Amino acid sequence: MTTEKLKKTIDDNFCYRPDFKYTHDNPYHEKLEVFDSFVLRDEEAEVNVGRWNDLFKNEMPLEVEIGTGYGEFMLEYCQKYPNVNFIGLDHRFKRSFALAKKLDKLEHRNFRYLRARGERLEFMFAENEVQSVFYFFPDPWPKTRHHKKRLFQKPFLNACHKVLKPGGTLFVKTDHDGYFEWMLAQLAGDERFEVLLSSRDLRREHPEHFLSLFTTKFEKIFLSQGTLIKSLVLRKR
Predict the structure, then answer these.
(1) How many domains does the chain have?
(2) Global pTM exceeds 0.70
(3) Catalytic status, residue 139
(4) Considering the domain boundaries, does residue 193 fall inside one?
(5) Active site residue: 139, 175, 177, 190, which one?
(6) pLDDT tens across 203-235, in order?
(7) Which phi and psi angles does 234 have, rounded to 5°?
(8) Euclidean distance between CA atoms 115 and 46, whole angstroms
(9) Does residue 14 sit within a domain?
């Protein structure tokens, strides 16, 4: 392998490494500081490993959404289920700031928001600390040369299995056929998870399911275009 290719391989996998450090120069990083009562930025999230319930000052179930996006699910879910400790996370700056302004107006303050990367899951949460992980409509990285950037692969599954409690659940939704098939391939032979649901048409096959009751901004667009919503529900054995 050439030095250039080796460097690229290291860069592609760097987020999973214990010595990873956030580097950026974005004005919204500083702007987010105004919401520091509930927003944690970069490595600030990782100092709470194993003590998130201490931060929330209760013992309610801890639930995590990776890739919160515009926050429709987080905003609705937190208010509908005030008896959970909810943590949303995303690495985009301007979008995080816009969502923080909405979160600041909510009645129930049962949440924290992390300006962080999903690859850092096992460095933000301790073993058996999380009850549920939500992963909705991630970037499918459709080009073959970009598939290695997809979050849903072995390192991510390893992290989910580590942080989820026994019987804890991973909920997934995607609009992308290719990414869904990729997910199934990543799960092949992995006996650590029980597949509770696997659907290529969630709304038709499971209209009353929990996952059909919440509709994100992107999901509304996909549905209006006639795109079928694919879904997985995995339970840690």
Answers:
(1) 1
(2) yes
(3) yes
(4) yes
(5) 139
(6) 999 999 999 999 988 899 999 999 999 999 999
(7) -120, 135
(8) 11
(9) no
